[in-house]
Design a protein that fits this description.
By secondary structure, the protein is an alpha+beta fold. It is 24% helix and 38% strand. The chain contains 4 helices and 10 strands.
Length: 181
């Protein structure tokens, strides 16, 4: 089970959360149809709600975009491939090379899938879209693209959410090698 210390690395927006209700809602965006199963709940994301998620009683997602300030704290790779160790290794090397020193990968409910959070800090939304695209393009030169980036300009605002992660996979925090770059 995830510990709260590991989850605080994400800097979750805690004044609201999303819950999978199972009811489908159709959302049209740029001529495409999306189907949403999540409902926004305007109350605090408490430890008891997180615990229910980890126990499998509820499916809870958190928001990636701070609507009030239009900023993003993390750029996220939603990896849906078959070799998470290889993905982590390649992504880690790329992020180090690009100067990122704080990033964390979490396991999701599905085996082999990861959420890789690149901790960028207060980043305005337009810059976050560009950075996510650049990171994806750079990594796709080394690996077949089996991930989705967040924030994503090609998706509706309601879909800029991710389920709370279940377990820590790997983390990198300002390693000592960065002083030599």
């Amino acid at each position: 089970m995830m510990q709260s210390v590991e989850l605080t690395l994400i800097k979750i927006i805690g004044d609201h959360f999303y819950e999978n209700t199972g009811k489908l809602r159709k959302v049209e965006f740029n001529g495409r149809n999306f189907f949403d199963r999540y409902e926004r709940i305007d109350s605090q994301l408490t430890m008891s709600i997180q615990k229910e998620h980890f126990e499998g009683k509820r499916v809870i997602a958190h928001d990636l975009i701070n609507d009030k300030e239009k900023i993003v704290e993390n750029i996220v790779f939603d990896y849906n491939g078959y070799d998470p160790d290889r993905f982590w290794h390649r992504a880690q090397l790329m992020l180090r090379e690009m100067g990122f020193v704080n990033f964390t990968a979490y396991r999701t409910k599905t085996n082999g899938h990861l959420h890789l959070y690149v901790h960028k800090g207060h980043t305005i939304l337009s810059e976050a879209y560009q950075l996510a695209n650049r990171l994806s393009m750079t990594l796709s030169q080394k690996l077949p693209c089996s991930w989705r980036m967040f924030p994503n300009i090609d998706m509706p605002r309601e879909f800029q959410i991710l389920n709370l992660p279940y377990d820590l996979f790997q983390k990198e925090r300002g390693a000592s090698w960065s002083k030599f770059m």
